[in-house]
Amino acid sequence: MVLAQLGGSISRALAQMSNATVIDEKVLNDCLNEISRALLQSDVQFKMVRDMQTNIKRIVNLEALAAGTNKRRIMQQAVFTELCNMLDPGKPSFTPKKGKPSVVMFVGLQAHNDVHSGLGHRLTASNPTHKLKAVKPLLVSGSSGKTTTCTKYAYYHQRKGFKPALVCADTFRAGAFDQLKQNATKAKIPFYGSYMESDPVKIAVEGVERFKKENCDLIIVDTSGRHKQEAALFEEMRQVSEATKPDLVIFVMDSSIGQAAFDQAQAFKQSVSVGAVIITKMDGHAKGGGALSAVAATKSPVIFIGTGEHIDEFEVFDVKPFVSRLLG
Ligand code: GDP
């Protein structure tokens, strides 16, 4: 179920409840069940849906409400609030300041079912750095869009008056540097990387140092999204993070990832201190539930969404307008 459909289903459930002559416990339960079904079909994690149901029931608690209160409005408000809460971890993420050097590191998976990378194995929250038995792959589509998103993020800030720079610390994937270089050149953003050096930590440190000297105030480090083994991928990420001491680690996730979103996001969070999430490909036929799950798993807010392949198809993510739009 794509996001627009999710919003439509929830709105319909609320409208059906509103049409009922008397709003009793059964009407409310039917409405809640309808909403829960829509959320589950959109790949929101089961536990989150169950928690939401409990919370809404508590808020609406029919018996406790004084006679004459508008139950329809209370229910509608409760659904709105709960959806907002699911998307709002309660603490804002670090935001870069102009003129003050910040390092922002991007992490996320690059591809799935890649027989050479071994990333077709499941990463789990409880065991993020060890390869487990081969089970279903975590990603249900190709690349997360991380490299494109690095450039979009740089470009967005450049237009706000920042002096951004891009560092390619992905030495695993042939062509990673070329891709970043191409994107950066198009957007006239300085970049750093190497065709020869194989140590991502060395490149990351050199790039960050160089751009600090050049007074760049937003230094973006793109890390590898795949490796021979998951363990190597997470270890590398951890080392790059330790060496560059990023002010913010952004986890990039493809919106079509589905039910695997929670586990994947949590696995990343347990390896590096993820502080924000960017969801890509929100323009496609994605199920929206992954966004909600990633927030819950990382306890970090979604700060931007990718809405197309073009460099400016990138939007600031605001919870309340997003949920309002979702509910129509
Ligand atoms: P990476 O391998 O994770 O670094 O992913 P890339 O940046 O190479 O992106 C993979 C593909 O997804 C490219 O064709 C991008 O143009 C595309 N892409 C990235 N973000 C978006 C988005 O928000 N919407 C759409 N439609 N495509 C995107």
UniProtKB/TrEMBL annotation:
Glycoprotein keyword on record: no
Compartments it resides in: Cytoplasm; Endoplasmic reticulum
All residue ranges annotated as the SRP54-type proteins GTP-binding domain in the record: 301-314
GO annotation, biological process: SRP-dependent cotranslational protein targeting to membrane, translocation
GO function term, MF aspect, one: GTPase activity
Keywords, sorted A to Z: Cytoplasm, Endoplasmic reticulum, GTP-binding, Hydrolase, Nucleotide-binding, Ribonucleoprotein, RNA-binding, Signal recognition particle
Principal cellular location given in the protein's record: cytoplasm
Cellular component GO terms, alphabetical: cytosol; endoplasmic reticulum; signal recognition particle, endoplasmic reticulum targeting
Family: Belongs to the GTP-binding SRP family. SRP54 subfamily.
Subunit structure: Component of a signal recognition particle (SRP) complex that consists of a 7SL RNA molecule of 300 nucleotides and six protein subunits: SRP72, SRP68, SRP54, SRP19, SRP14 and SRP9.
Protein's job: Component of the signal recognition particle (SRP) complex, a ribonucleoprotein complex that mediates the cotranslational targeting of secretory and membrane proteins to the endoplasmic reticulum (ER). As part of the SRP complex, associates with the SRP receptor (SR) component SRPRA to target secretory proteins to the endoplasmic reticulum membrane. Binds to the signal sequence of presecretory proteins when they emerge from the ribosomes. Displays basal GTPase activity, and stimulates reciprocal GTPase activation of the SR subunit SRPRA.
Protein name per its UniProtKB record: signal-recognition-particle GTPase
Full protein: residues contained: 1 to 328 of 719
